[in-house]
Amino acid sequence: MPYHIIIFGGSGFTGQYVVEEVARTVSEGPSGTLRWAVAGRSKAKLEKVLEQAAGALSKPELRTVDIIVSDVKEPDSLAAMCKQAVIVLNCVGPYRFYGEPVVKACVENGAHCLDISGEPQFLEGMQLNYHSEAAKKGVYIVGSCGFDSIPADMGVLYTRDQFRGTLTAVESFLTASAGPEGASVHDGTWQSAIYAAANGASLRSLRRKFKYQPLPVVGAKIKRRSALFYSNEVQQYAVPFMVTDPSVVKRTQRFLAEEQQESPVQYGAYVGVGGVGNIIKMLVAGMMFMLLTKFNFGCNLLIKYPEFFSFGLFTKAGPTKSQDASFQFAFYGEGYTEGKDPSQGKPDGKIRTLVQGPEAVYVATPIAMVQAALTILNEPNVLPRTGGVYTPGAAFGKTTLIDRLHKHGIQFSVK
């Protein structure tokens, strides 16, 4: 293959940061080198991204990185791109609308594919429709390889591996700190949430097609917390974390139970929302969001005015580079210590772990995505036996991905 990695959508909001992250890590490729290219619809925009990266990183050689013109609406151009890559890093979202043609082209043309989707309907739809064919072709399709959902999915596995015994349940609590300029998130994430809320019924219908049996519950059944509660764990009010993490973690635990006969871990995800002022804003925004996503005109309003309806959290500009933000997941696990029978009595052991990292969107997400790609390139022998459509935990559970992330500032620790 001419290229180890092709970044598709390199001129998009997240894609430009992925370009910079790949440029920083070329020495970590196979045999200490990395052949890579950028791809997208507009050669001029991609040239501009490479020019900016060359200046930002003081690497003038980036101006000569190869550019491939490829359009998600032109299957032949996608096929031509995929034939040249070991791995395609797909940064073109919302994946609900633009993701499947890339997955299809990768599977048909033998390229592995990673994305940073936080959209359960897309992720699970790809598993339903392409897992068998990808397995036959030896192609690995791994979704949600950014902040959604590598910290949560790998964090649960890390907690399990650090616990001496049989871990049965984990709750995670996400907190984030904003820099002096405050925090904002690009509205692409907002749009994904709108489409997910508006299409909840389709996701339920999709899940029925898998005909899953319920996962066995080991130990005490995890108690679901209320919609709003004061968390002693993070010393602030918290709410259920209504994103893709719970569905990704559950898919990983199902894979481990069914394919590797491991004891599945129950999971609950929560996010700290701060004090009373934040709660009032969240309740108002949440009520408007739930009401408006029931109607097409409401969805259009939400998409058109993200800043207004989210009280400034989501913006069309997204975060600025100077935002000195960070995140922390605290995992609280329980289980049966070594020598104890998980079928007898209550869990008798506890563990607390942390996953901490830099700003989620433009720093942590590119790090996670690029390290996942480098893991596939450098450690093919410890990936699942066959290709297929996998979660990060299923794909990378036996690799050194956690160590790689740790070296790049996404840190895993026992507390």
UniProtKB/TrEMBL annotation:
Source species, domain of life: Eukaryota
InterPro entries: NAD(P)-bd_dom_sf (IPR036291), Saccharopine_DH-like_oxidrdct (IPR051276), Sacchrp_dh_NADP-bd (IPR005097)
GO BP annotations, alphabetical order: glycolipid biosynthetic process
Family per similarity comment: Belongs to the saccharopine dehydrogenase family.
Residue ranges constituting the Saccharopine dehydrogenase NADP binding domain according to the UniProt record: 5-142
Cited Pfam families: Sacchrp_dh_NADP (PF03435)
Record-level GO cellular component terms: lipid droplet; mitochondrion; plasma membrane
Gene source species: Gadus morhua
Secretion signal span: none
Protein name: Saccharopine dehydrogenase-like oxidoreductase
SUPFAM superfamilies to which the protein is assigned, alphabetical: NAD(P)-binding Rossmann-fold domains (SSF51735)
